Amino acid sequence: MEDTLKIYEQLYFERVSNKTLLRQLHNPIREYENELIDGAIVDIGCGQSHFLLDFASADKDLIAIDNEQIQLDYLKHRLEQQNPEKSDKWLFLNQDFPKDGLPDRDYSLIILSNFLHFFGLKECIKIGELLKQKSSTGTLIYISVHSYKYYTNNPKDPNNNEYFKHYFAIADLGKIFPANWFERLYCAAIEKTDPKFEADLINDWLEKYFKAEGIEDPNEIAMAKRDYLKNKSDIIAIFRRK
User: Fold this and answer.
1) Residue 101 included in any domain
2) Where are the alpha helices (DSSP H) in the chain?
3) What is the pLDDT of residues 104-158, one digit of tens each?
4) pTM, whole model, 2 decimals?
């Protein structure tokens, strides 16, 4: 994890309580929770997963996968606060997906939130093939990705895909999860302005980052804050394995 993101995640852990996180959670999976088949819930690239927190009381094994141990530690602490009685049903894996694959388990739900845009479209199609192999009939797959309308997307910039490798159109998800194997249950294009608590968090994160880097130019600081606080454009979808 880049040092700048470590600063943000620490601030997020310290200032955003489980109660706040869950109260403001938008979780369309809940609309289909009565249709979840038997099997574990896995969050790939979990971070401080509000989804796993939301399902902390579910009678299912929860698997958290991230390649940053500090994120797994933060999440474990949150889950222990939320429902310590279920701790024997949690598994925290410091792994790189897709390189390290997924445990050989039955899955009721596979979550990839803010994950696939770190891969090119061809890589994402390979990930879809892997998920087809690891899922069963009825497994739900939740996706959240940055859309082509996302504020950092500038196709004219030769470095446009250095950080976010792909910006998505809805049709791209159909290439990753083809209709002969997956049924699309839910799809939404989301455009939003950050709520005040999140905008304040981003502002304080940038202040800490600029101080750590010795950046004092007010114009550079103002420009960076303006960019980070622009409207966000994402695509959310839920697929069911046929």
Assistant:
1) yes
2) 3-15, 18-23, 50-54, 69-82, 121-134, 170-176, 196-213, 218-228
3) 999 999 999 999 999 999 999 999 999 999 999 999 999 999 999 999 999 999 9
4) 0.91
Domain assignment present for residue 215? The answer is no
Nearest to 132 by CA among 188, 89, 175, 187: 175
Q: Percentage of residues in the chain with pLDDT exceeding 90?
A: 69
Specify the CATH number for the domain of residue 49: 3.40.50.150
Instruction: Please check whether residue 151 is in contact with residue 181, taking contact to mean a CB–CB distance below 8 angstroms.
Output: no
Asked, for residue 198, whether it belongs to a domain, the answer is no
- For 147, the domain range is 18-193+231-241
Place of tokens 């103002």: 222
